[in-house]
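I am writing to request your help with a piece of structural work I have in hand. What I wish to show you is a protein chain and, alongside it, a tokenised description of its three-dimensional fold. Could you please explain, in whatever detail you think fit, how the structure tokens follow from the sequence? You will find the record immediately after this paragraph.
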Amino acid sequence: MPGDAFGQIYEYFLNKFAMSGAQEGGEFFTPPSLVKTIVNIIEPDHGIVFDPAAGSAGMFVQTAHFIEEEGFEASNKVTFYGQEKTDTNTKLAKMNMAVHGLDGDIVQGNTFYDDKHELVGKCDYVMANPPFNVDGVDKSKDSVKNDAKITFWITQYRQRQLFMDTILL
């Protein structure tokens, strides 16, 4: 986004904040280079874009950059939905979206237990940093055992791993 100096400054400080210890309790800040790689591989250029672990909304900001590099307005091409486990990160995500001039529906809730948007099967793109903190998930809960999206994510994660293994071999 040309002229997005305020947004770039905000992202700089988010990165510094994350690197100074904000990655505790199973929460991780996805480096901008990885976010850009994910967006460039997936190419989310239309429809509903969902991040079930929205963090600071970096996936959405990078998606907007991607769409604008193609010569379009992100607000005319995509609708952003996000969910984030902590209230603080939800607020950071909303602020990040605002300073970049983006609109989206980001809500607080643990994606493993609550599906606040009810978007299973309705999204054009689902982007997230792979969940490294699944050890903290209570897998005995019915909401986890009977959740279609978690089964879907596990299948997608395994397919992605196979794809990455093939590329790296």
User: Anything to note?
Assistant: Helices lie at 5-19, 32-42, 58-69, 74-77, 87-99, 142-145, 148-168.
